[in-house]
Amino acid sequence: MNTIAVVPGSFDPVTLGHIDVIARAAGIFDEVHVVVVHNPDKSALLPIAQRVSLIQQAIVDGGVTGNVVVTSWSMGLLVDYCEEVGAKVLVKGIRSQVDVAYETPMAIVNRNLAGVETIFLLPDPAHAHVSSSLVRQVAGLGGDVAPYVPKAVAEFLASHE
Predict the structure, then answer these.
(1) How far is CA 96 from the centre of its chain?
(2) Is 129 among the catalytic positions?
(3) Among 28, 32, 63, 114, whose CB has the most other CB atoms within 10 angstroms?
(4) CA 39/CA 62 separation, integer angstroms
(5) Which of 130, 89, 75 is nearest to 7 (CA)?
(6) What secondary structure letter does DSSP report for 124?
(7) Residue 23 CB: number of other CB atoms within 10 A?
(8) For strand 67-73 and strand 89-93, is the pairing parallel, antiparallel, or unpaired?
């Protein structure tokens, strides 16, 4: 049986922590869908198509192996996407208790709505303090984000200052 997992997020921009979670999920599941979703509570730095492209490049550059599909989803619930592709698992990276508190109600609702389970993966400690919000803030103020993001993202952000 082919086990499909979905790694969702706004990925605005994708960080090394995200790539770490994607790579580890790709080592556990037969197929991993990295799904860029629109978060109406956040104001986006990058258009969704650019985020998809940067994630694809970061996966190649990072040597991530496995069957990884990168796409976006903006019409309906994330569990609708899961049902469409036959995924029964969502994978979320958890950095702190704040993330657990935020993600737990969504995990319960996703299970209740569609029988989709959520698995939380802890990040590599080297990336546990990094969020896309922090990267956006540092980049917006002219700081060096290279230690926190894949090379393609650092180059893109530097060329669009």
Answers:
(1) 16
(2) no
(3) 32
(4) 26
(5) 89
(6) P
(7) 18
(8) unpaired
Give the model confidence (pLDDT) of 70-104 as tens digits: 999 988 899 999 999 999 999 999 999 999 999 99
SS (H, E, C) 69-85: EEEEECCCCHHHHHHHH
Closest CA to 15 of 112, 150, 128, 161: 150
> Does 136 participate in catalysis according to the annotation?
no
The active-site residue out of 53, 88, 95, 131 is 95
Single out the catalytic residue among 42, 129, 151, 160.
42
Q: Tell me: the pLDDT tens digits for 136-160?
A: 999 989 999 999 999 999 999 988 7
pTM beyond 0.70, yes or no: yes
Mean pLDDT, residues 35-58 taken together = 91
The Cα–Cα gap between 80 and 119 comes to 18
Order across the sheet with 89-93: list the strands. Answer: 67-73, 31-37, 4-9, 89-93, 117-121
| Geometric angle at alpha carbon 55, from 54 and 58, rounded to 5° | 85
- Annotated catalytic residue, options 10, 18, 51, 127: 18
Q: Compute the distance between CA of residue 82 and CA of residue 92 in angstroms, rounded to an integer.
A: 14
Annotated catalytic, 88?
no
- Spatial distance between the Cα atoms of 107 and 117, rounded to a whole number of angstroms: 7
